[in-house]
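Dear colleagues,

As part of the handover before I leave the project, I'm documenting each prediction I ran so the next person doesn't have to rerun anything. This entry is a single chain, and its sequence is reproduced below.
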Amino acid sequence: MFSFLVRILGQYRAEVLRYYVREYASLSIAGILGIAGMTALVLWFDPEKYVHDGYNVVGVTGIFHDAGVKYSRVIVGVVLPDGSRRNLIAVHGSTYGSISDRACVERRRSEASEYFRYRLVPAQKCKDW
């Protein structure tokens, strides 16, 4: 193989190519595989889509203020209309400023299944506040 490269490229260029392949072949293969993997992840990863299903006023069972280093958040324990309990997190002041003994939550439904997600929203979004 090397003699074939010497005839085509010349002695100096064949030596440089041989050195490059020995030194950087594993790194190049790893880079190509990494780029191929990331491309496959971007092209074929299909996250589950959620659509808006309505706003609900729910009862609040407890509020816990968690002041971190980077940001401040409030963890709110709520009782949903179906009777189940959830802990929801609010990081915006307009959201946790309107929480008292009740809170406004947005209900989002999965398009693929009947799974629901809830998130705290400002009180003016709920009509029956």
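Strands lie at 50-67, 72-79, 85-90, 102-110, 116-121. The two ends are 79 Å apart (CA to CA).

All the best with the project,
I.
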